[in-house]
Design brief:
The chain is mostly helical. It contains 22 helices and three strands.
Length: 472
């Protein structure tokens, strides 16, 4: 979406106090897509073992059912920008809300494994759309001085969605007597877990009618007066709106030819800045973060933790995820994006290495030895904390800010798609890798966390405090 870019004008750097609350509401409503992103991504954690049992499938097939949603995510992320430029950001959100709703109902009432997979792909397409539309829309309506903090609403919503899904799963599991396939409301417990997403999906759709269209989109379709009204809502009335609209038009004009072929160049197909964006996306996933949210119940059960406790640990991990995200929101505009990424990388290396060590011990009576069990549990929470206070937030902020104006739309789409493909690779491979060697799997994730440190030091430039027009 080329129109995410704008240079700040005098008076546009801060929001009048009377308007800041309204801007926060708009950003929070848009971030409901992020909530559904987190909820839909991780709710499957509660059904993995039940799906394995009900359909009698092995690890490889099970992994594909869990991971196939990510193919939909990649397609949704790659196409969302073009859809939003054609019909508007709000309409795009409404389409995503409908897809989330349809996916929730279909996933709760599958006829067979194949249609469960199909409903997950549809939900994945909605997640992919939300992953692009949310940050872009928030950037377009946010006063520059608050853009970093408001932009982090998306990640905050994602981690809250993850936490709520795990809390709902835990509550439903207890209601079903600790059995993922226990009867609940005439269905099996895991089906209810997947179906509950209808509630936030409908809420997202309703909220989309309560927030304004992006002024950048309105300007792009010639609705200048309506754009001025919305700019007054989000930036206050002490702004020269004619100059502001002209400024946005000029910024948009420089980006009108943004396309995939504009990304090509340099020695290795893409321009270097595009590879840096792809690298950030891939490293964010290759540390194995989504194993903690898609498979944590299965992981803990595999080392002897009973199902109810494993669901509870999934919930506590997601709470740590929220704590880390709040820390990042506080510091992302204070100490900068790059220092947070480096701090997070170091912490992740320590947490992952400790997990690899703990999982290297043989099980005793089906469980890890007590010391190793506690180390694994604490290290898992440590890893999630350091990811959340760093890469979980800063990668999304970087991707929204780091690309030159002319490349931003297409580059953001490529980087987001790379993130979903990398997520798919980790998600699809984990069950088979864990069957091979659980400790070895975590050694691989540790290596990627360690490699992210020189990558950030050498290639990533700080974007804190810079106007979007300065990138490049």
């Amino acid at each position: 979406m080329a129109s995410t870019s704008q240079a700040p004008s005098p008076g546009a750097g801060t929001a009048h106090p009377d308007h800041l609350g309204h801007v926060i509401f708009i950003a929070a409503a848009a971030a409901m897509g992020g909530f559904l992103f987190g909820y839909d991504s991780s709710v499957i954690n509660g059904g993995v073992e039940a799906i394995r049992d009900r359909y009698d499938v092995g690890s490889a097939v099970l992994a594909q059912v869990v991971a196939i949603a990510l193919i939909g995510c990649a397609i949704g992320a790659a196409t969302a920008g073009r859809i939003a430029d054609r019909i508007g950001r709000i309409r795009c959100m409404q389409i995503a809300a409908v897809l989330f709703t349809v996916s929730a109902v279909g996933s709760a009432l599958p006829f067979a494994l194949w249609d469960l997979a199909m409903w997950r792909v549809i939900g994945g397409f909605a997640i992919g759309m939300a992953s692009v539309i949310g940050p872009a829309y928030i950037a377009e309506v946010s006063p520059p001085a608050y853009r970093g903090r408001l932009g982090s609403f998306q990640q905050a919503a994602i981690v809250i969605g993850i936490a709520v899904s795990q809390l709902v799963n835990w509550g439903l599991l207890n209601a079903a007597g600790g059995d993922q396939r226990g009867e609940l409301m005439g269905l099996e417990a895991w089906q209810v877990m997947l179906g509950v997403m209808v509630v936030p999906a409908v809420l997202y759709g309703l909220l989309s009618f309560a927030i304004p269209e992006s002024p950048r989109f309105l300007i792009s379709v010639g609705k200048r007066e309506r754009a001025k009204e919305i700019l007054a809502e989000v930036e206050g009335k002490d702004v020269d709106f004619d100059a502001r609209v002209t400024e946005i038009e000029q910024a948009m004009h420089s980006e009108e030819k943004s396309s995939f072929k504009d990304l090509m160049g340099g020695s290795f197909f893409f321009k270097p800045i595009v590879w840096i964006g792809i690298g950030l996306s891939v490293f964010q996933q290759f540390v194995g973060i989504n194993v903690a949210f898609y498979y944590s119940s299965t992981l803990w059960q595999s080392v002897g933790v009973d199902p109810t406790d494993s669901f509870f640990y999934s919930f506590t991990t997601s709470i740590i995820n929220i704590v880390g995200t709040v820390i990042a929101m506080i510091f992302v505009d204070r100490i900068g994006r790059k220092p947070l990424a480096l701090i997070g990388s170091v912490g992740m290396v320590i947490g992952l290495a400790l997990e690899a060590w703990a999982f290297s011990f043989d099980l005793v009576d089906g469980k890890l030895p007590a010391t190793q069990g506690w180390v694994a549990l604490i290290a898992a929470h440590l890893f999630v904390l350091f990811f959340a206070l760093s890469w979980g937030v800063v990668v999304w902020v970087f991707l929204g800010e780091m690309f030159p104006n002319r490349l931003r739309a297409a580059a953001l789409g490529v980087a987001a798609s790379a993130q979903w493909i990398a997520n798919w690779a980790i998600t699809a491979s984990f069950p088979s890798l864990a069957d091979w060697n659980l400790s070895g799997t975590y050694v691989i994730y540790t290596i990627f966390a360690a490699l992210s440190i020189p990558f950030v030091l050498k290639f990533v430039k700080e974007t804190k405090g810079k106007a979007l027009e300065e990138m490049g």
